[in-house]
Design a protein that fits this description.
- With about 650 residues, the chain is α/β, with parallel strands linked by helices.
- It has 28 helices and 18 strands.
- Helix content is about 60%, strand content about 15%.
- It is elongated, with a radius of gyration of 38 Å.
């Protein structure tokens, strides 16, 4: 097309009678030329599919007037000069500049052809006086100019964005139609009043400026409707439009795809709750900038709302997974907001058509399921699999029921004794959450705790258990019994920076000394987000609260965290304790763990004690405290109080107590 445009310029310049041009009304023509130049250099940006990729020029009315008044040769030279000036100002590449000039020249040729044909005028005619009878042909020529220009630009945009040309034309027409019609009418009036001089022409500047401002406002509103106001990324509506276009492109060239990557920040609620929403907003802007840089212009990120983002990928599964890895890698470096340096982590769900969905809706749904699985498994990136979709509706209903249970106080807490293996007296209890569903019956914690973690309800669940446990502990203390209360913390909640404040408030509310509370954490939780966990555990220990490593030996075992963190006790997992009397390997692991804990000055609690032989063996190895069905099943606060009372009576009756 560039060659065709160049040929048109050469042909028009060669065929124009420049002698007749010299006798034209130069001051009005000069005014039109300058106005066209200004209108070209100061265009209005338009948005296609939420991406700024085109302009609306206000040079149109003046160029149309030049086509009629000064002839095609003058109009072509003015338009070519204005286009080149605009390209120089905006530092466009020579290739793009050549395209711009060519499409403008071809549009003017079309305009002159229509105008001269309908007005019965020579195609290469020179300056002339435009009369009212020429207005119709001139408007038709102007429309031809706009249509040819629109089609040429739309063809290139469609190729670059892999979408049908009719879609591009339809989107651009929303911005061009009304604006260009008004501008063309102004151009026709300008052509008629040229004979009245520059002063009259200058009066047309006001309506052109008004059109400019009105169109700018419309374009701004369209941008705001298609973009997220906080981050500047495309919004959810634009994501759906982009997905629809990507499916159309994939059907035309069936090579796999499109893919969709959903990304959700981990623990973002903690940042909002602890540092405030203004800090959270600034952090989201930084995240958006990181995502844009990671994509490098090949794909576009959208913000779906909150801390969730999405990217449509044109390609197969490998391409989508590569994008997911790139996005997460972009967030690895700490982000500074004011004087606070924050580590931001995220999880991603990946789904690719046609394997994981053949419509935009199904792809969105399955990518969201994959994201949920990534959160659940803590794998950071998860690709959709049909097995993840099993009972999804059931999980959603269970989550709704959990919300109801929290609101209505339907969650209970049971307590399992922790027993001194030498004296066999109870020295502590572990609080265990229980949910008796009105229709499902007993719902095990493994079924609803992950739901609570990934939905943000875990803070309320923990608060419920903590409050109930400390309340019952206060009742035991009032009856004269002093013992430790152990409460489990989920891996997600362990990195909640607001947790220490929540614990301190609960302790104060029930007048419990901090040393009587032990918070149990898992190895997986400790290693999931080390930077945050270190801060949370250090703050809790400064309060005086004890920290126990639960299920020791079953997670991503690493002795480094025992060195890095100050903990108070190790709980040996029941999987090693149950068979230690029959499995020599289990026995060695238990013996070594007890020796390690004692050397480090830690308390040791063995879980899963099912018989007296195991209890005796653990006591002989130096394990101080045990827990398991042999020593006591989970039970109610009343039964715990009754057992403590019986132990006190037995102790009072023993010979040792008498002496």
């Amino acid at each position: 097309m560039c060659g065709l445009g160049l040929a048109a310029i050469v042909g028009v310049v060669a065929r124009t009678s420049w002698t007749s041009v010299q006798h034209g009304p130069w001051w009005p023509i000069g005014f039109l030329a300058v106005a066209a130049l200004v209108g070209e250099v100061k265009p209005l940006r338009i948005s296609r599919s939420g991406t700024s990729s085109g302009t609306v020029s206000t040079s149109g009315p003046y160029i149309v007037a030049l086509v009629a008044v000064a002839g095609l040769g003058t109009a072509v030279l003015v338009q070519a000069f204005a286009s080149l000036a605009d390209d120089v100002v905006n530092r466009r590449t020579p290739k793009k500049s050549a395209f711009n000039t060519a499409q403008y020249v071809l549009s003017l040729v079309a305009a002159r052809a229509v105008y001269s044909g309908l007005a019965d005028l020579p195609f290469f005619g020179g300056p002339m006086t435009v009369e009212v009878r020429h207005v119709g042909p001139l408007l038709a020529g102007g429309i031809a100019m706009v249509v040819v220009n629109l089609l040429l630009v739309a063809a290139v945009v469609s190729i670059s964005m892999s979408q049908p040309i009719l879609t591009t034309v339809r989107e651009d027409a929303k911005f061009h139609a009304a604006t260009q019609l008004v501008l063309l009418c102004i151009g026709a009036v300008a052509a008629i009043v040229v004979k009245d001089g520059v002063a009259v022409l200058a009066l047309l500047t006001a309506p052109v400026v008004a059109v400019h401002w009105t169109t700018a406002a419309a374009i701004r509103h369209a941008y705001e409707a298609s973009h997220d106001s906080l981050t500047g990324l495309k919004n959810r509506d634009q994501l759906h439009i982009q997905l629809d276009h990507a499916f159309v492109a994939a059907h035309r060239a069936p090579s796999g795809g499109p893919g969709l990557v959903l990304l959700d920040l981990d623990h973002f609620k903690d940042i909002n709750d602890t540092l405030g929403h203004p800090v959270g907003d600034r952090l989201l802007r930084q995240v958006a900038q990181r995502l844009v840089l990671a994509l490098g212009g090949s794909e576009f990120a959208s913000r779906l709302g909150g801390d969730e983002f999405a990217v449509v990928v044109e390609g197969d599964l490998a391409a989508a997974q590569a994008v997911a890895h790139a996005l997460l890698a972009a967030l690895n470096a700490p982000m500074r907001v004011d004087d606070v340096e924050l580590l931001v982590r995220a999880s991603a769900g990946v789904a690719v058509a046609p394997e994981h969905g053949d419509t935009a809706e199904s792809l969105m749904k399955n990518a969201d399921i994959a994201l949920y699985q990534a959160k659940l498994d803590r794998d950071r990136i998860s690709t959709y699999s049909p097995e993840y979709d099993v009972n999804t509706l059931g999980r959603l209903q269970l989550l709704a029921d959990l919300r109801t249970a929290l609101d209505n106080g339907q969650l209970d807490v049971a307590y399992q004794p922790q027993v001194d293996l030498t004296s066999r007296r109870m020295v502590g209890v572990e609080a265990l959450i229980r949910w008796q569903h009105p229709t499902r019956g007993s719902v095990p914690p493994d079924s609803f705790i992950p739901l609570a973690e990934n939905s943000g309800l875990i803070a309320e669940v923990t608060a419920t258990v903590l409050d109930a446990a400390l309340g019952h502990l206060a009742e035991l203390r009032a009856a004269g019994h002093e013992l430790r209360m152990a409460v489990n913390l989920s891996a997600r909640h362990l990195s909640d920076l607001a947790l220490p404040r929540q614990v301190a408030e609960a302790l104060a509310r029930h007048s419990i000394p901090p040393a009587m509370l032990v918070l149990e954490v898992t190895e997986t939780g400790i290693l999931a987000d080390p930077a945050r966990v270190d801060v949370v555990i250090a703050t809790l220990r400064n309060l005086g609260v004890g920290i126990a490593v639960d299920d020791y030996g079953t997670g991503h075992a690493s002795l480094s965290y025992l060195k890095r963190l100050e903990v108070d006790e190790l709980k040996i997992d029941r999987s090693f304790v149950v068979d230690m009397g029959r499995d020599n390997h289990d026995f060695i692991i238990v013996r070594s763990t007890i020796a390690l804990a004692l050397d480090l000055g830690l308390r040791v609690i063995a879980e899963g004690i099912e018989d007296e032989e195991t209890a005796a063996a653990l006591c002989a190895l130096g394990c101080g405290v045990g827990q398991g069905y042999h020593l006591g099943r989970p039970t109610t606060p009343d039964q715990i109080l009754l057992r403590l009372a019986n132990e006190r009576s037995l102790a009072a009756e023993s010979p040792a107590a008498t002496r």
